[in-house]
Amino acid sequence: MKKLLFPLAIVLFFGFTKDPEIQIDSKDKEWIMKHLTESREHMKQVLDGLSDEQLDYKPDPTSWSIAENVEHLALTEKMFVEMLHKSIADGPKPELKDSLVFKDDQIMPMIADRSQKVKTAEPFEPSGQFGSTEETLGALLAIRQELMEYIETTEDDLRNRYAKLPFGTVDAAQFIVFIAGHMERHVLQMEEVMEDEDFPQM
Question: Domain range for residue 122?
């Protein structure tokens, strides 16, 4: 009887014990942090020293000002981070691996490409809800800092979590680089405003 119980115990132990989850690769962390850092620093560089008149300038009535781009980024980045945390909480979904639509090196140039214009959804239209541009920028930078601290400390397997975007499925690592690319896209839009011939001078 004892001889039968021991093998049974082994079967039960291994049958109900899950393999430890694979942790995020250090190279993925470096890749993600590079884009989060570079896009943030590019934005700060562009905004540095701009007057209220420059921040609020619009090349035409249908264009966004630099300040409105900052607010749009604050609104969308908050939503993106919430989406990311939901994808992490939903747990691994290896069955979605074959659904990926982009390779890693395609993510950043695809979203930052300004040749394709996209109209945002109404909830992400700028409306001045954060207050001043300084307050709006503070909110945006706080969201970005929270995201970067998560990446620096997490051991979550971001390659096995997924998010569904309008253009298809991405894994969580790609999604975070998408967030960085979205910021870069709007920083480029800010630079386009600054290049307008009637942009206020210092």
Answer: 32-194
Is residue 9 a part of any domain in this protein? Answer: no
pLDDT at 175: 97
CATH no. for residue 89?
A: 1.20.120.450
Give the integer Cα–Cα distance in Å for 73 and 85.
Answer: 18
Residue 12 lies in a domain: no
pLDDT tens by residue, 140-179 = 999 999 999 999 999 999 999 999 888 899 999 999 999 9
pLDDT in tens, 24-35: 778 999 999 999
Q: Tell me the two tokens of residue 195.
A: 């290049």
- Give the number of domains in the chain: 1
